Amino acid sequence: MLDIDLPRKGRWREALPYAVEGYLLGDLANAHIVADAHSANPQIRAQVIDRNWLEQVLTFLKTRGVQPQEVYSQASLLTSKANEWTVVMRTEGAYLIQQNGFAQALDCAEGDRPPTLLRQILQDQEISLVPSHLRVLWEGIGPEQLAKKSVVWSEALGVRCTMESDFKLQAMQSLVPQATNLLSGEFAAESPLAWRKLDRSMRLAVIMLAISVGIWVLGYAVQTWVWGNRIQHLKAQAEMELRRGFPDTRSILDPQLQMQRGLADLRAQAGYYAPDELPALLGRLSDLGESDEMHLMSLDYQNQNAVLAWHCDSADQAQTLLGRLKQLGLEGTLKADTTGQTVMLRLGGGAP
Fold first, then answer.
1. Which three-class secondary structure state does DSSP give residue 197?
2. Residue 95 burial class via C-beta count within 10 angstroms: exposed 0-12, middle 13-18, buried 19 and up
3. How many CB atoms are located within 10 Å of the residue 34 CB?
4. Which residue of 25, 254, 265, 269 shows the fewest CB atoms closer than 10 Å?
5. At 338, is the pLDDT very low, low, confident or very high (cuts 50, 70, 90)?
6. Do 94 and 107 form a contact (C-beta atoms < 8 A)?
7. Where are the alpha helices (DSSP H) in the chain?
8. Alpha helices by DSSP H, 79-138
9. Phi/psi at 126 (5° precision)
10. Neighbours of 44 (CB within 10 A)
11. Which residues contact 134 (CB under 8 A, 6 or more apart)?
12. Which of the four pLDDT bands, split at 50, 70 and 90, describes residue 240?
């Protein structure tokens, strides 16, 4: 375990192996380095493991049907409280865990005396950093021996020492969420998804594609919301205009269609028809006054205007024709002549 002075910005992960290289006795290529990204320490804490040893352990487990998902160092499993250090004494070696979580190896204790390196570390600490309590975890030691060692260690170190057994139970109970998983990089547990099998460039391409799709979906949603509000505003405005122009309208289902029908009725009452309506109307009017007593003399249609003239044999027939036109919503006129038997009808934009 190492604390490296390396700024956490830019491509610091790629520079970490070269910063660790000076502390290694062996080849850098045989070192598996894991950075503790959750550490509150301003320095970067790195845990270094022998790559070949870790690979052999994982291979041994895999041949027996065991696939580890997470691997932690012993120091990551044992946390210390404020003003408290933890010492782990095991048959294969001893190590110290300081309050900030940093762990370092110790020499083996001689008899009941504490390790020499532990005494030296306590002496080198500033007074404000010396712990008030030292928790010592022993493996395979009985209660009587623990009580004796507690007294001897406290007198030798000048720090209150408490002895505990059952190391494995203590380790499992102290497992913390921020502990660093040592299975990373090439040793990361295989995922059921194919994501981990992609190289860095492919992952970057997939991420960029996902971001682009997300931006497009967000833009489409925003545009849909904006146009939806715009449509609602235009619909409310159309209903208001319809009420203003046709106050007798009882209910509004389609303001645009109802407005078109209302305007068409107004145009018909005024004698004006749209260009697509006028030819059909003229076809009906040409046969309106055809009888023995009245007939159509002329029909002049140009520039979207039409003038029709009927000749009637008597004034009564002329009044009958005017009545028929009125039933159609049209206002015909008698030509100002002495006979009073000619009926005129003007349609279109020029109609009076």
1. helix
2. buried
3. 20
4. 25
5. low
6. yes
7. 12-20, 51-62, 74-77, 116-124, 143-157, 167-173, 200-245, 255-270, 278-285, 315-327
8. 116-124
9. -65, 155
10. 22
11. 84, 85, 86, 87, 153, 157, 159, 160, 161, 162
12. confident
Give every CB contact of residue 61 below 8 A, 6+ residues apart in sequence: 67, 68
Terminal alpha carbon distance of the chain: 102
Reported residue count of the chain is: 352
Beta strand pairing status for 294-302 and 103-106? unpaired
Beta strand pairing status for 305-312 and 160-164?
unpaired
117 burial via Cβ count (<10 Å: 0-12, 13-18, 19+): middle
Compute φ and ψ for 343, nearest 5 degrees: -105, 125
110 vs 116: CA distance, rounded Å: 9
- Which whole-number Å values give the CA distances from 137 to 26, 92, 115, 159, in the listed order? 31, 14, 14, 16
Cα separation, 128 vs 38, in Å, equals 25
The pair of three-digit structure tokens given for residue 195, joined into one six-digit string: 């994501």
Q: Say how far apart CA 123 and CA 119 lie, in whole Å.
A: 6
Asked if 102 and 148 touch (Cβ cutoff 8 Å), the reply is: no
Q: If DSSP codes are grouped into helix, strand and coil, which group holds residue 37? A: coil
Using CA atoms, how far residue 268 sits from 44, 277, 351, in Å, is 87, 10, 11
**CA 199, CA 245: separation in Å to the nearest integer?**
68
Structure tokens at 76: 């990551």
- What is the C-alpha separation between 33 and 223, in angstroms, rounded? 48
Give Cα separations from 59 to 52, 106, 194 (angstroms). Answer: 10, 30, 22
**pLDDT tens digits along 199-227:** 667 778 888 899 999 999 999 999 999 99
At residue 181 the predicted structure's pLDDT band, cuts being 50, 70 and 90, is: confident
Residue predicted with more confidence, 289 or 32: 32
Q: What is the DSSP string of 65-81?
A: T---S----HHHH----
